[in-house]
Amino acid sequence: MTAATEPIDVALIGGGIMSATLGALLKQLQPDWSIRVYEALNDVAQESSNPWNNAGTGHSALCELNYTPQKPDGSIDITSAVKVNEQFQVSRQFWSFLVDEGALPEPDRFINSTPHMSFVWGRDNVEYLRKRHEALEGHPLFAGMEFSDDPDVIAGWAPALMVGRPKGQPIAATHILAGTDVDFGALTRNLFSYLTANGVELALGHHVTGLRRGRDRTWTVSMKRGATGELIDVRARFVFVGAGGGALNLLQKSGIPEIRGFGGFPVSGEFLRTDDPAVVAKHQAKVYGKASVGAPPMSVPHLDTRVVDGSASLMFGPYAGFSPKFLKSGSYLDLFRSIRLHNLYPMIRVALSNVDLLKYLIGQLAASKRSKFDALREYMPDADPKDWYRITAGQRVQVIKRDKEKGGVLQFGTEVVTAQDGSIAGLLGASPGASTAVPIMLTVLERCFPDKKSEWSGKLREMIPTIGEHLAADEAKAAATMGATAQALHIHA
């Protein structure tokens, strides 16, 4: 057993976008702190941050219909859409700052302009989309969004949606040029390159097996080095658990009371993908539709242009599945190992109250290859099976948490869990995750380092000019901020 006697300042567990983002923030705010990153795999960005493992939309609620539900009175609730969009603007500001500082490379290495569209068919859905557009079009964060139910206009936006489509079918779409495609794998790798060039130690192949708190408030991080099997203990004053689906298990091992009542529901899946240049050239947009009844928000069908490592592809899905693994590289025992007395009742209550979700997952598991391809043809009617192949998506672990009224609820989103003394924090959950990494990590800083608030405020304002403000409340500031970041990142305003 190798043990370090002097504690380091910060231990980041997990080599994904969250640890990379928190590390970059801390390196800017406190360059003298010692920071180490521990990743179980032999490279960074291999789980949820991998561009083919779900991450990559650049969630800004421009096209994702699950952020704008229809209320019982028929009106559209845009609250979540505004919140997600504001969060994405915060991420863009930080990335812009790092590009200007030379900490990130040319922005087209990780972000590219890609129109975002919503597309529906059926009279009720057309009316819903019309109302959604009316609710958003006057909002400063959604300026430039267009609506049409004219097949010719929609064909001009995205020809592949219309070729071979039955005439007379009621359809509608919204279109906005300000959308982006983000390669979070490339962004993560570039952030770690910046960190390691500035003194941060990145330990790959180090599997963290335990966390225990000492009387002096420091944490002992126990791990196994994969190459040699050597057992290592490292002490740290602050620990962040950004291990994706592995975060729940590690936070449970830490013993902090704040993790009590939390459980996880893993969802796997797959996509159809094509790299054929002739097919890819037919469609240059991210197109989101409506989820099936009972489907979780993360399963909303979408036909995406993806730019990964500079090459364009198309991806359609996701097709939901189930695996008890919490990570793509995890164990089939992950779900069962996560069950505790304190989260058993919330998990049972969630199972009993989400019958539609269970039926949906069973239906997806039983779906044939043909029916899955037919789902693609609802968006791209002339798609040819020979041009497409299946890829396995990453694992997502939806948060289950205690609820006073319902006993337990399934939460679609992310949850920051922090110890009362601020010495450890972790992130649970999934979408919109990566796109909102910066505001999520700002929440970690606020909760865990309250004594640094005044000292860091000036630098934070330099990195994120609108920090603490609501862009939605100031049209002029929203336009100026989005225009400035668009210019810095070389994307459409």
What does this structure look like?
With 493 residues, this protein is an alpha/beta fold. 32% of the residues lie in helices and 25% in strands. The chain contains 14 helices and 21 strands. It has helices at 17-29, 79-101, 123-136, 151-157, 184-196, 247-254, 277-280, 334-337, 341-353, 355-366, 369-377, 437-448, 453-463, 475-489, and strands at residues 2-3, 8-13, 35-39, 111-113, 116-121, 146-148, 171-176, 180-182, 201-204, 206-213, 219-225, 231-241, 263-274, 286-288, 302-308, 311-321, 389-392, 396-403, 407-411, 414-418, 424-429. Strands 5, 6, 7, 13, 14, 15, 16, 17, 18 and 19 form a 10-stranded mixed sheet that branches. Strands 1, 2, 3, 9, 10, 11, 12, 20 and 21 form a 9-stranded mixed sheet that branches. Strands 4-8 form a two-stranded antiparallel ribbon. Helix 2 (79-101) packs across helix 14. It is globular.
Provide tags for this entry.
25% strand; FAD/NAD(P)-binding domain; globular; alpha/beta; 493 residues; 10-stranded mixed sheet; 9-stranded mixed sheet
- Roughly what fraction of the amino acids lie in strands? 25-35%
| Portion in helices | 25-40%
Q: What would you report as the Rg, rounded to the nearest angstrom?
A: 22 Å
Give the domain tally.
1
Report low-confidence residues grouped into runs of 5 or more. none
Mean pLDDT: 92
User: What name does CATH use for the topology?
Assistant: FAD/NAD(P)-binding domain
Task: Please report the number of helical segments.
Answer: 14
Give the overall shape, derived from the CA principal axes: globular
- Strand runs, count: 21
Sheet having the most strands: 10 strands, mixed
Computed structural class: alpha/beta
Q: What is the top-level CATH class?
A: Alpha Beta
Fourth-level CATH superfamily: FAD/NAD(P)-binding domain
How many angstroms separate the termini? Answer: 54 Å
What is the architecture at the second tier of CATH? 3-Layer(bba) Sandwich
